[in-house]
Amino acid sequence: MVLPFNPQDQPHESEFSLDFNAKPWTLDRVITSCTDEGQVAIQELMGALVEQGWDGSEFFQVNMAAEEAVVNAIEHGNKRDPCKSVHLLFRVSPTEIYLEITDQGSGFNPDTLPDPTDEDLIEKPRGRGVMLIKEFMSEVHYNDRGNSVVMIKRRSAETGDSDSNG
Amino acid sequence: MVLPFNPQDQPHESEFSLDFNAKPWTLDRVITSCTDEGQVAIQELMGALVEQGWDGSEFFQVNMAAEEAVVNAIEHGNKRDPCKSVHLLFRVSPTEIYLEITDQGSGFNPDTLPDPTDEDLIEKPRGRGVMLIKEFMSEVHYNDRGNSVVMIKRRSAETGDSDSNG
Amino acid sequence: MATPKRIVVNEQDGVSVVRFVDRKIVDSSSIEQLGEELIALVTVDKRNMLLLNFENVEFLSSAALNKLISLRNKIKPTGGTLKLCNLHKDIEQVFKITKLDKLIEILPNEEKGLASFK
Amino acid sequence: MATPKRIVVNEQDGVSVVRFVDRKIVDSSSIEQLGEELIALVTVDKRNMLLLNFENVEFLSSAALNKLISLRNKIKPTGGTLKLCNLHKDIEQVFKITKLDKLIEILPNEEKGLASFK
Ligand SMILES: Nc1ncnc2c1ncn2[C@@H]1O[C@H](COP(=O)(O)OP(=O)(O)O)[C@@H](O)[C@H]1O
Ligand SMILES: Nc1ncnc2c1ncn2[C@@H]1O[C@H](COP(=O)(O)OP(=O)(O)O)[C@@H](O)[C@H]1O
Fold first, then answer.
1. Is A57 on the interface with D (CB under 8 A)?
2. Which residue has the higher pLDDT, B157 or D111?
3. Helices B56-72 + C89-97 axis angle, to 10
4. What is residue A157's predicted lDDT score, i.e. its pLDDT?
5. For a Cys-Cys bond, which of A69, C25, C87, D50 suits C60, CB 3.0-4.6 Å?
């Protein structure tokens, strides 16, 4: 693979290099309702992040959001049905990450989820994935049915060990 | 697809046509632990049987054996695990059908299965698949582990509505 | 019961004659549904004289056979009877090999099937 | 208990110090196993003063978080305590966002962790 960006050479964004040289990395894949297959795709995604100069907290946060969304698609969306699949569309450029994850379930309403930090829920061992996705990504959009999520992470002004959340 | 044999033209086997003209139909496919995917492959198999002049009881029996073996691979072998797959290798010529079905389970011993026709088992709603496979195919071989079966059906001398079992 | 989707039921001389919608009884969710509809005939509709007419059925898997056995087991303690008729010869062969023809009576056609209940 | 595979446990001043084998706690079967091993510390080995040292851990998913909550819930009624130390800053951030740092005490390092049990 030819790297459009070498992080060592070009530590800072520049509109020129972005528009004319940056060939965003793309993964477009249909996986079965198997988290191992999801893991493989996320490993490839994280490799692309490294190649395109993402690191530190942003790297961690994208890893977390991808992990939670893929597991939700398989577990809650497809209910691990071996006849159902998950469509992954990942794009990584040096300045922006686009993750689209679509399952074949009946969806849900992310706006009516209970707050897992509430006193009566804080001891429950569940219900933190969507919250972390929303905290860690710059934009999160579910479709109306709720079986597809688009998550965008924009590079913060500071490169490297930024601790920005979203 | 070019049919190597047209049943109307060549209702009887001939060694010549077999060896030199017959291009056996082949399906070599990995499916997930999803019976719908198994169904699609079996439909294609049955289409190939028609094309190669199989019909009547032999058609029915091969359909049954394929169905039972694929369902067993998915259900008992892979236990419907979405991370596991089944390998199908089907070959159909006008005189012989070869079906190889391999799952990723831990296998079983087909020789120690109880006889479902026993008085104390006859009312149980299970345990007839392997028996029907053995009855309906000319040869059935499980590998040592028991996660792979090879089933062969040879065309009986009588073509058409034969009621031979195996 | 909810309107059945995999079977069509007709009452005739006190016997429920059941026909099948599918020519091939093989898809696992259809088989599950079929099983539920057949059992509901007994548990919900309280019918226990059942004649299943297989005229339309070209193929059925052992999973479908299992549903018939479960149906027979459900009917038996009610004092009712399950019978089959109009089996294609290959399907009848399946019943013979598995000796299920000893468990569930098979009649050649609907007329003889109905008569056998008298 | 069976030899743990996902954790390494050392007794120190009456506290069980637990370290993790995996740098990324994310694979679902590993998480299940991890959860069982942690719970067995309490239910089988009757240890209830636990300090989990996250030094080796770079990443963990919410499924792994859930196992920690279950562990905390198991320990609480025994009168014991679960504490964590040496969290990477991004993981500590996860605990802050989810307010789990209010449920499970987090110490900067093992020394302070051990001292806090005194
Ligand atoms: N892709 C999805 N399809 C259907 N429901 C979902 C999906 N993603 C999340 N949900 C719903 O949102 C709830 C909260 O999800 P999450 O915050 O990840 O916590 P958890 O997975 O531990 O339940 C889930 O329990 C589920 O009901
Ligand atoms: N591919 C397989 N892998 C593991 N076990 C199998 C496999 N095929 C069959 N078996 C075992 O053989 C038993 C009998 O199978 P079968 O005769 O098809 O009846 P049923 O599927 O109704 O149990 C199964 O219950 C299972 O224990």
1. yes
2. D111
3. 50
4. 76
5. C25
What is the distance in angstroms between the Cα of D97 and the nearest Cα belonging to chain A? Answer: 8
Determine the distance in angstroms separating the CA of C26 from the nearest CA of chain B, rounded to an integer.
8
**Per-residue pLDDT tens digits for D57-105:** 999 999 999 999 999 999 999 999 999 999 999 999 999 999 999 999 9
pLDDT band at B160 (very low <50, low <70, confident <90, very high): very low
* C1 close to C36: Cβ distance less than 8 angstroms: no
Closest residue on chain D to A123 (Cα): D69
Residue B153 pLDDT more than 80? Answer: yes
CB crowding B16-30: b at 16 or more within 10 Å, else e: ebbeeebebbeeebe
Domain at C7-107: CATH architecture? 2-Layer Sandwich (3.30)
Residue B23 is predicted with a pLDDT of 78
Chain B residues with beta carbon closer than 8 angstroms to that of C58: 60
- Parallel, antiparallel or unpaired: strands C49-53 and C81-85: parallel
At residue A74, the 3 state secondary structure works out as helix
Residue A9: pLDDT band with limits 50, 70, 90: very low
pLDDT over 80 at B45, yes or no: yes
Chains contacting chain A through 3 or more C-beta pairs under 8 A: B, D
Pairing state between β A139-142 and A148-154? antiparallel
DSSP A117: T
Q: Say what angle helices A35-51 and A56-72 make with each other, to 10 degrees.
A: 160
What percent helix, strand, coil does chain D show, rounded to 5? Answer: 45, 25, 30
**pLDDT at res. A158:** 62
**Which of B63, B163, B165 is the closest to C89 by Cβ?**
B163
| pLDDT digit string, tens, across residues A10-37 | 434 444 444 445 579 999 999 999 999 9
Which residues lie with the beta carbon below 6 Å from any ligand 2 atom?
Answer: B 68, 72-73, 76-77, 103, 105, 107-108, 113, 126-131, 147; C 62
Query: Which residues, other chains included, contact A157 with Cβ-Cβ below 8 Å and sequence gap of 6+?
Result: none
User: In the predicted model, what is the mean pLDDT of chain C?
Assistant: 95
Q: Residue D47: which of D87, D23, D77, D75 has the closest Cα? A: D75
User: Which chains form contacts with chain D, at 3 or more CB pairs under 8 Å?
Assistant: A
pTM of the predicted model, to two decimals?
Answer: 0.85
> Given CB atoms, is A134 within the 8 Å cutoff of chain D?
no
A72 touches chain D (CB under 8 A): no
Closest residue in A to D96 (Cα–Cα): A117
Give the range among A66-70, B56-60, C2-6, D28-32 with minimum mean pLDDT. C2-6
Looking at the CA of A75, name the nearest ligand: 1
Ranges of each domain in chain D: 7-107
Distance (angstroms) between ligand 2 centre and the Cα of C62 equals 12
Other beta carbons less than 10 A from residue C60's beta carbon: 26
CB distance from A162 to chain D under 8 Å?
A: no
Q: Do residue D73 and residue A60 have CB atoms under 8 angstroms apart?
A: no
